[in-house]
Amino acid sequence: MKKQFAVLSILIIFVLSIPVYAGVPMTTVEATVNRVLDVLRAAKLKSPAAKEKKKEKLRIIYKDMFDEIEFSKRTLTRNWNKFSPAERVEFVNLFEQILEKSYIDKILDYSNEKVDFYKESMLSENQAEIQTKIVTASKEIPIFYRMILKDGKWKVYDVVVENVSLVQNYRTQFNDILIKDTPEQLLEILRKKVKAQ
Length: 197
What we know:
Helices cover about 55% and strands about 20% of the residues. The chain is α+β, with helices and mostly antiparallel strands.
């Protein structure tokens, strides 16, 4: 009896020690992606006249899904400290608009492909990677979402599409600019890019 009680106690301690967030990053990504798919599949949003309404709905989901400050910090890395507080706010805002446009433009091309959510890896207590793939008639496109837990909510801070990280891609571009130019000059480049969108 004592032996059974000891085994039961160990099992209870083990179960109670499992982090409460296990599975939450995957569930969060899956729920968000399904919200996006619902918008893309909505019959009343299929017409060309409804394109702006569709974009607005996707924009709301995008803002809820991504941690723009984390995205910006990880993209600028050490260069983040070269920006004044006001420049950081402007950078986050401009970078968000560029990423949002790129993200929305890409997903508007969706034509009823299947999305498979197949693996969640905890990178640390507050970071996770969710591995998914889009399955088309001719190929599979791997898309990994890197997430961070902040204020009790899991948000995406990087997306890796076919082994290309958005953070690393932009980091290379911005580092090349900041080697020779100032934060203000980078901001001016981003302002022009946003205006041209």
